[in-house]
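Table 4 source record.
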Amino acid sequence: MRIKKIYDISWELTENTVIYPGNPPIKLEVTKNLKSSTQLTEIRIGSHTGTHLDAPLHVNPSGAGVEAFDIEHFIGDARVLDCTNETRAVTVKTLEKYKIKKDERILLKTKNSLRLSEPFFSNFIFLSPEGAEYLVQQEVRLVGIDYLSIKEKGSADNRPHTLLLEKYIPILEGVDLSQVPAGDYFMFAPPLKFKEIDGSPLRAVLLSV
């Protein structure tokens, strides 16, 4: 594989990284061993911090955890769709024009990507419930979006989560597509190897080949 360019689409994690309201804050506590002069950092972080995976357990108390997904879900061909014309939600009309095929890994680039340096904003672009239903019908392999939730903040309609996750279509939230042109890539974005947990931070990269 000849790589033309590598895009790191992960959020940088510090104690000041933006988190979804109500989620645990990031805490980095450094300790030092005076005898060996080594340094150790205790990392406290929520399972849905920064660039992360949603597992079925996130929305279903009896759902599966991160371990439900084979690693192949997160390694392979992916397509970034330009949804930057959307002003509220990614709609079926926008998705239909891309002729999405079965088993595609789809990343939705919206206006959110232009605002990632801002404090948390509640009017982020989300995936419409009908859009989620459409992606399920297309039998996609994975869906990602460029903010901390795939559904509208405060909405009682949780279908953007539930429709995808009940079909074991993993959701990547908080991908940074600000520098990534729409198009085809090779993606590497496996979560940490947790068991029986509702989500996991991850490091995601796109390779232009």
